[in-house]
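re the bet — no i am not wrong, look at it urself. input seq straight from the record:
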Amino acid sequence: MVKDSNRLKVLGSRHSFSDIADSNYNHISLNKLNSIIAIDKESKTVDIQAGMNYGELSPILHQSGYALHNLASLPHISIAGACATATHGSGINNRNLPSAVSSIEFVDSTGELNSLSRTKHKEKFDGIIVGLGGFGVVTKLSLNLEETYNVR
C-alpha cells in the first residue's frame, strides 16, 4: 500500500489543534496495530506496535513493574504520533516523549522496511523519530523503561 500510493497519510489519534491531518490523501489507520511485542527486562525496553496508545501501554507496564519517563496528557494519544510530533508531556525537567525511543521500524515510500537505532544511527535518528511521518509509516517502536515510580 505504501509503495503504490503517491499521497498517503497515517492517522494517529487525530488529536490536533491544527488541520495537519485533514487532506484528500489516502489515509491509513494503525489502530489495530496496538500490541506489546516484548518487554525486555535486561535492557529495560518495551517493543510496541505503532498503533498503541499511552492508555493501553501504561497499565501493562505498571503490572510488570515498569513505567515510561513521561506521558502524554491524554490516554488516547498514540505513542508513535506523539513521538512524530515531539509531544512534550509534563514537567519542566522531563525530556519530550520521543526521547524514550531507542529504535524504530518504518516502511519507506519504496515499500522497504527500515530499522534504525539511536546508538547505531545517531546522525539521522532524531530527525526520523520527529519526522511528522515524512519518512514513512512507522510499524514498531522500542521504548526505554524505568522502574515503576510514584509521583509526588
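see?? Residues 8-147 form a domain with the Uridine Diphospho-n-acetylenolpyruvylglucosamine Reductase; domain 3 fold (CATH 3.30.465.10). told u. also The CA atoms of residues 136 and 152 lie 39 Å apart. so pay up
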